[in-house]
Amino acid sequence: MNRAASASAQILSVGLILLATGGSASLVFAGEQPSDAKAAQEADAILAERFKDGLPGAAAIVVRDGRVIFRKAYGLANLELGVPMRPEMVFQVGSVTKQFTSAAVLMLVEQGKINLNDDFRSYLPEYPDKGARITVEHLLTHTSGIKSYTDDPKWFAMWRQDLTPAEIIAITKDQPLDFPPGTKFLYNNTGYVILGAIIEKVTGQAYGEFIRKNIFEPLGMKSSHYGTNFGLVPNRAYGYSKDGQAIVNAPFLSMTQPFAAGSIESTIDDLAIWDAAVSSGKLLTRTSWDRMFTSYELAGGEATHYGYGWDVEQFEGRRVYRHSGGIPGYMSEVLRMPDDRIYVALLTNSDASGVSTGFIATRLASAAGGIPFREPTPVTVDPRVLEQYVGVYQIDESSERYVRRDGDHITTQRTDGEPLAAYPYGQDEFFYKESYTRLRFTRDASGKVTGMVTTQGGISKVAPRTDKPVPSNADDRQKAP
Q: Helix (H, G, I), strand (E, B), or coil: what is residue 56?
């Protein structure tokens, strides 16, 4: 069915319900409901506006109360051959892989083969002593302090090399810790590569084999697998990037490298099956599932808003569990709202479409939940006031945010990121278009701007203003898994 077809007609033809039966999660047919059609119409409008004919596209699925109320694809799966995207297309999902790795670790915890409180070197004794105890849970929660190989400048020149897990770990293993384990949160791909190596060590199986035999096959996720550069994958969408304004084939990255941090390929249908299994408590005990979705608490008592392979947030007072994935040629987002029984999976075959998968997935979930989206209305602010916000704000020890004035608005740029336009909508308040993120600047008693508060997903973070000069330019970075 082409893009001109109505969302209602498409849902009527699909009519899917997710069921968990006989030890597997499966999809069966059922009729639509009027409220489903309204949500689907809004979802179609949201996606059709952003994924155009003739360009790299996307596939999306929305599940509510166990029913698939929306399932559709947009754009092209192959630009050179003009192949339209279809909902059953296979995508690289990048860091969405981490939730499967986390589930695998917890399976082995339940089998008594892994202890979350063990120093991980009891499983990998060849890893050097860092003078600190680094537990398996520290790896799961990005609180280990180990340096991430995807942040190491020399890694970018290694993309074409096939590397073993040990060789990936070796990229940063001799470098000092960024912080004492358990004291800070810093997203870390090396930690999940180490987890994959632990899985292989205690099971005697390749990571991909363990995931296939213990997750994909039992659940009937027939189109999900460990990624391959050279094997033939039916229905795999080609991945695209950009060189300036030109769309190009994505740069080659050996799929040995993302490993347990980002090498899985899947479909929206399989991800919906996965969520049905999660919701019904399959594969793991309810205690283990609850632990996966519990925000880890740092040594000082601060919540990280990250569990095991999932971001733990809030949206309009509701619990939200989500994760994004970025890998050359692909961007992905999965989102669960357990209180509303809503699940969204959005997979795209471009890493440079300019579309925020996080924002779109949230819009799709809000449409399914009947939560209206109202973007703030920009207001006019005196340029002299906008100049007061210009400066460098310290996010953490390794990251800053640069604020510059650009005409009637400001731009903010995180270290190694791209400038984003932020528009005023109230006193010291700003918003990004196509985003739920809000900025608020703080002032001291004299009226001087002293900091920035960023609020996203119900989480507020403070970045104090520094006396550093704003750089004239900031280097862009390649996207990492």
A: strand
Residues 135 and 243 both lie in one domain: yes
Determine the length of the chain: 481
User: Do 202 and 113 touch, CB atoms closer than 8 A?
Assistant: yes
What are 314's strand-pairing partners?
319
- CATH number of the domain at 358, please: 3.40.710.10
Asked whether residue 246 falls in the same domain as residue 392, the answer is no
Structural domain boundaries, residue 322: 94-369
Q: In this predicted model, what pLDDT tens digit does every residue of 74-103 receive, in sequence order?
A: 999 999 999 999 999 999 999 999 999 999
- Strand, coil or helix: 428: coil
Contact residues for 443 (Cβ-Cβ < 8 A; gap 6+): 428, 449, 450
Which of 324, 339, 369 is where one domain is finished? 369
The mean pLDDT of 138-152, rounded to a whole number, is 97
335 in Cβ contact with 320 (< 8 Å):
yes
Q: How far apart are CA 305 and CA 303, in angstroms?
A: 6
Residues 309 and 179 in one domain: yes
Beta bridge partners of residue 38, listed in sequence order: none
Identify the residue with better confidence: 89 or 31.
89
394, 448: one domain: yes
177 plus 312 within the same structural domain: yes
Locate 144 and state its tokens: 């280990």
- Answer positive or negative: Cα dihedral of 7, 91, 29, 278: negative
Which residues are CB-contacts of 388 (< 8 A; sequence separation ≥ 6)?
448, 449
pLDDT in tens, 181-205: 999 999 999 999 999 999 999 999 9
- 34-48 helix and 357-369 helix, angle to the nearest 10 degrees: 160
Range in 287-291, 351-355, 477-481 the model is least confident about: 477-481
Helical spans, DSSP H, in 280-400: 286-292, 357-369, 383-387
Residue 476 falls inside a structural domain: no
Each residue's pLDDT tens digit, 238-282? 999 999 999 999 999 999 999 999 999 999 999 999 999 999 999
On the question of pLDDT at 15 being above 50, the answer is no
Continuous segment of H or E residues that includes residue 99: helix 97-110
pLDDT for 416 equals: 79
Contact between 181 and 133 under an 8 Å Cβ cutoff? The reply is yes
The domain that holds 408 is classified in CATH as 2.40.128.50
Kindly give the residue spans of alpha helices, DSSP state H, lying in 268-369. 268-279, 286-292, 357-369
